[in-house]
Amino acid sequence: RELAIKRRSIVLKQMRVRGIITESAYQGALNVPVHAVRPDNVSASAPWFVEYVRATLEEALGSAMLYKEGLTVFTTLSSEMQQAADTIVRNRLYELEARMARNRIRNPDPECALISLDVASGGILAMTGGKDFQKSSFNRAVSAKRQPGSAFKPVIYAHAIEQGFSQNRLILDAPVFFRGGKHGKNWRPRNFSGKYQGEIPLRKALAISQNIPAVKLMEMSGPSPVVRFAHALGIESELSPNLSLALGTSEVTLMELSGAYSVFPNRGKWIRPFGILEVTDSKGRVVWRAKPEKRMVMSRAGAAIMSNMLEAVVSEGTARKAKVLQRPVAGKTGTSNAFKDALFIGFSPTITTGVWVGQDSAKSLGKGETGSKAALPIWTDFMAAALKGKAIRYFDLPDDVVQVRMNSETGKLASDDDPYGVMAFFKKGTEPKKKEGGQ
Fold first, then answer.
1. pTM for this predicted structure
2. Is the Cβ–Cβ distance between 135 and 47 less than 8 Å?
3. What is the mean pLDDT of the chain?
4. C-beta of residue 165 within 8 angstroms of C-beta of residue 149
5. CA torsion, ordered 234, 239, 242, 244, to nearest 10 deg
6. Percent of the chain with pLDDT over 70
7. How many C-alpha atoms does 416 have within 13 Å on its Cβ side?
8. CA distances from 361 to 144, 163, 200, 333, 422 (A)
9. Which residue pairs from 324-328 have beta carbons closer than 8 angstroms and sit at least 24 positions apart in sequence?
10. Which of 108, 111, 144, 257 is most buried, with most CB under 10 Å away?
11. 9 & 153 share domain
12. CATH value at residue 170
């Protein structure tokens, strides 16, 4: 009980410092009796984040200092964004649960995780680990490992771009068959829609999320280099070095994948997501300060090209609903087999947000509950709230990158009146030279 009281004190003090509660609410909460039961005293405003912070500090400082030294914790959390995240997740999950009931899904119990990161610093702005902390304190944003489906494809494409591929490179989207060899199984991957496009530019293949081009890119490079690249992007979960990895069959955490996506708007730099800025003792002395791990993992040009390609997912592909934001945003949908997991991970030039929707039982959400349908609306609602009133920013365009008008169907230069013309980024010297029609 004594330990619980001391734990409550530091949590409440952190909430007061961040403006989550007022001074009077803080003083009143300190006088509420503590009973030795399930720790319901965790902040109602950001319970998963507060518990994440507590666990982090307990590991870094030890229990004795954390609970006995009267520490003050300064965090990266935005109380406004956190409140928006909790409200949006709750409301959208109610809608999804109703849809699942109408579709006769037995005992529907959808969950959601959301994590939002400051692109430049890596600081966690909002973290929601589920729909009801009192029923389940498991943090699905940090600890749950699930298949990301097509949300893993940007890792494959980013590796290809770094290897010298351009976004107008044509790749054959057609049925393909892989023999398993002596110990493996034969594999015939298929596109989600069951339709094939023939030769298409990489940009379009990613935008409409065709599976075959991603698998072929993986085959060209080999799985092992892609796995190493994914680890460099901060994905520390074990990844199976086989071709099916291109379709997101290896399980990862939402925090890992969101941190990896942040590399693209952050000019090729990866920063380990973190939630604590600094900790001071009762006399105001700093006893712990954040020193987030960071490293350059992509060229600035490659990161800019990937941001541009993922903008196409919004402007031309599976995430068109996000165009309602009316500002530069980019990202990728993801859906695992049998609609068990639905994801959207995306970013503006300043904020990266990842959303996962699924059931803890790993049962299906129901036919048609894709990343676009189940996760993207949550992401869009949250980003609308997070970016409200903020100046419109544009993605990085380095000096060694040019943007040209390209025909999205052929990859050739497009005329001003070409209905398929899009603005595409290229490393200088690799941009298309011939216009549609061969001129």
1. 0.89
2. no
3. 92
4. no
5. -90
6. 90
7. 0
8. 12, 39, 38, 22, 42
9. 324/380, 324/384, 325/380, 325/383, 325/384, 325/387, 327/387, 327/392, 327/393, 328/392, 328/393, 328/394, 328/395
10. 257
11. no
12. 3.40.710.10
